[in-house]
Amino acid sequence: MTRLTLDQAHDLAKSILLHNGFSPAHANAVADTVTAGERDGCASHGLYRVLGCVASRKAGKVEADAAPEVIDQAPSIVRVDAAGGFSQLAFQAGLPLLVDKARANGIAALAINRCVHFSALWVEIEQLTEAGLVALAFTPSHAWVAPAGGNRPVFGTNPIAFGWPRPGREPFVFDFATSAIARGEIELHRRAGKAIPEGWGVDAQGQPSTDPNVVLDLGAMLTFGGHKGSALAAMVELIAGPLIGDLTSAESLAHDAGSKSSPYHGELIIALDPQRFLGGATEQHLARAEQVFESIQGQGARLPSQRRYEARVRSREEGVEIPEALYHDLKALLEWE
Amino acid sequence: MTRLTLDQAHDLAKSILLHNGFSPAHANAVADTVTAGERDGCASHGLYRVLGCVASRKAGKVEADAAPEVIDQAPSIVRVDAAGGFSQLAFQAGLPLLVDKARANGIAALAINRCVHFSALWVEIEQLTEAGLVALAFTPSHAWVAPAGGNRPVFGTNPIAFGWPRPGREPFVFDFATSAIARGEIELHRRAGKAIPEGWGVDAQGQPSTDPNVVLDLGAMLTFGGHKGSALAAMVELIAGPLIGDLTSAESLAHDAGSKSSPYHGELIIALDPQRFLGGATEQHLARAEQVFESIQGQGARLPSQRRYEARVRSREEGVEIPEALYHDLKALLEWE
Q1: What gap in Å lies between CA A274 and CA A102, rounded to an integer?
Q2: Does B185 qualify as catalytic in the annotation?
Q3: Tens digits of per-residue pLDDT, A145-161?
Q4: Which residue in A has a C-alpha nearest to residue B235's C-alpha?
Q5: Which pLDDT score is estimated for B261?
Q6: ipTM reported for the complex, 2 dp
Q7: CATH code, A34
Q8: Which chain A residues are closer than 8 Å to B105 by Cβ?
């Protein structure tokens, strides 16, 4: 393993992206999120993603110097046209106006359009909780997941994320796929020649299957939580697709045309301001929310992001470790071709 | 079974509520929702609920002539103080301003406070989809459900409902508890002396239990979908509790003090206007949403409210049937004591 401080990790990511043609603004915004992923122990959203960024650029699937355009769509709606660039810079561009609108009106929405998306949603959610706001985020992905009772993919892994500000503490944040499991997890089982647990996918006839090849190539993945999870996946498909005038997971997969790049589509973020709901009683009611967290943790159950925050404390002190092979692959992207 | 036309069902509910001291406005609003439940084949939200309404009144747990107060809280927030009355009239009171704000600003929220709540959320959601809006609704209930990894109740059955308008068709609507199953379902198993399936609840040590007595009296119910469902239940607890300055499920159960009445707390509804997101392209993008529904139904999977809409068509033609015993119990509430 190779140990890096968080600054070194950020510099490495940023210099690779710059060297491979990304504008300074994009290089910085992407380096921020992959460093945050590595820092929080989420290797799947960490430095490893820089390899994919460069590959997407070489495949012509992302605009390396797209300038996001912020549109004041309605009193409580901000729209950002990412113009084919990565989502991170588009989110940064829209964030100040989203925060202003939520604070002025109580609730506001940010619709990001035409972005290439691979970021974990909690990175964005935490920027809203830091501003004292409650936040929700939704995005489709590529159509890999069948509806409950079906046998053919319609939904993406369609994540839902939520954040609640906790004064003086890390926020309450969750961010999960509405699929039963990440697609990458099924791919790992295929590579290892191992069966997958029941509940992850179905065959072409819609029957439960534990064969990763069947689920990935012939049948479909399943949502978590049966028909309830399937209903939520449909909701994400609708509100982060047609509602914001952007692609569904099926349309995004068709657009990808087999290049295996990150999805190209939209994202919906909703921000609510406790101050506008509660006025002078905000502090008192946020304190009541703490009782909910205490009754969860007081019985030995965990809050959703607890492991991530523990990793964060460690990484700030000790830096992060990445596999030697990954470090060499990343370094190779700094050489002139 | 006793057969009633929908008008007869509505008249019966309304006259019982009037006879038992509810104001005409409350009697009418409650009769609307219980008739809708009966019509859609949801007996558990049908005429049977009128018995509970009268019992709640006799127990002093609901204000029978509360006049909801509508407060223009912020440019995109309506608040309604239900003043201890049933939620239905409070929702009716807040609906016009919520629709206005959503249409003007793109997204808006309705917070209902201090209401006694037993209504299905889809009844409210459908009034928003009828206005062409996308809608979400959340409410806590009584603390019966443990967090994932825990053994003590923190959450209510905390339903989430969603609606999407479909021009010329019944809307796409779902409305489900974040608990694995309704509490009433476990009570039915207890009465029948039957074991419950694994996954519905835990014992006092947090171990899976199939004994309804253990789950109801000593342990706790579980959420659907493991830690993901548990995270969603926590979200409902927060955004429809402290965010709107109202009771959590634990506080609502304490307030009930063993009377077994309907929960007394708040509700959060969010409405989004596709016209403000999409402008002139609204029709085109709503048509793209229809492709999502077609790819679900085209593979033989069902949309969430399909059974309800089928029952609705039948009930409009043939009326509804309720058990003779229920009919007699209801009729008895029309006699002078």
Answers
A1: 10
A2: yes
A3: 999 999 999 999 999 99
A4: A162
A5: 77
A6: 0.97
A7: 1.10.1530.10
A8: 74-77, 105
